[in-house]
Amino acid sequence: MNSQYYEFFCPVKVIAGHAALEHIPYELTGLGGSRPMIITDSRVRQAGLLSPLLTACQEGGLEVVTIYDEVPPDSSTAVVRDIARVYREQDCNAILAVGGGSSIDTGKAVNILVSEGGEDLTQYSGAGILQKPLRPFVVIPTTAGTGSEVTSVAVITDEHKEVKLPFTSSFLLPDAAVIDPRMTLTLPPMITAATGMDALTHAIEAITGLGSNPLSNAYATAAIRMISQHLIAVMDHPRNTEGRLALAQAATMAGIAFSNSMVGLVHSLGHATGAICHLPHGLCMSLYLPYVLEYNLDRIRGPLGELLLPLEGAEVYATTRANERAEASIRAIRKLRDQLHERCDLPRTLHETGRVRRDQLDDIARLALDDGSILFNPREVTLNDTQAILQRAWT
């Protein structure tokens, strides 16, 4: 880890609090957006989460032209093309992405097509392809985990090649992220748990990875502390608005952190597992986090040991020997996973998911080696290494 030189960049305006939605018309019209399309999924709409947003838009004089509510959990290039077609037909000029990582990533990808033209999204895959700003784009997350509202990346599945296409550009960053606890109050326990672990993984990999730097560490440490303090409390009291807001802010802070320091092997394994077995991303993060930390332990003992303070608090940190704190941090993460398993059966192993076959592990291992996140892992990784980690994560 080398912090002698680093870059930190986050131009996304964050609008957070109990009346954040009401500020959207002012923000969007200031960006030149007068005819927005809402991009979301059916569960968000059925849960009634669009109602306060639509009310805020109407009272603020903003016309929502159309609502696309069929984004699948694992969005694809075909879905993006279909939404872009509707956007053009309805003469929209802005996007409001409402939902979790899939809806937000879909909104980013749609913004590429409607801004750049054409229907072939694959030609923009990779880093540095986009060369100019895109259309006005505001994000309203309904989960507290992905951090997509403040990241410059998107991942979309190519349904023909059955691979996940990465898109990376500062032009993918939303113009504004609206963090309102009303949008996460009805989040089911399983998704609350998985997305919380997603945010925790973002923060921990931001601190322990090769791209770690002082500014991203500050955001990540604060995120870890807030998740440790509020995740179980929210699981036990889902209508706790202060806790929901804290988790949503933690996810945003973790997103700012990892978008400036990158992630590592947990994400490489998670991306590969999601592509092959179609497991939710947050669940994959929760599954692999302790196993990868154990694999990286000799390279990250110092920073991982310091995370015991935000994970467990001052008393546990002070009474744990310095040379034992890294292992104690891993135990704290395992304890948190056990608590979540007790409350909502969040799987802790690949076998517990019931959706991963043991004969798929070698394919996952090979695919993980091709994932860009692996470049920032603090320890070099071989095929044998990924296979061994997957075997340990099986049971």
TrEMBL record:
One of its GO terms (molecular function) is alcohol dehydrogenase (NAD+) activity. The keyword NAD applies. Residues 192-394 form the Fe-containing alcohol dehydrogenase-like C-terminal domain. Keywords: NAD, Oxidoreductase. This is Alcohol dehydrogenase. Its cofactor is Fe cation. Its EC number is 1.1.1.1. Gene3D superfamilies: 3.40.50.1970, Dehydroquinate synthase-like - alpha domain. Belongs to the iron-containing alcohol dehydrogenase family. The lineage of its organism: Bacteria, Pseudomonadati, Pseudomonadota, Gammaproteobacteria, Pseudomonadales. Residues 11-181 form the Alcohol dehydrogenase iron-type/glycerol dehydrogenase GldA domain.
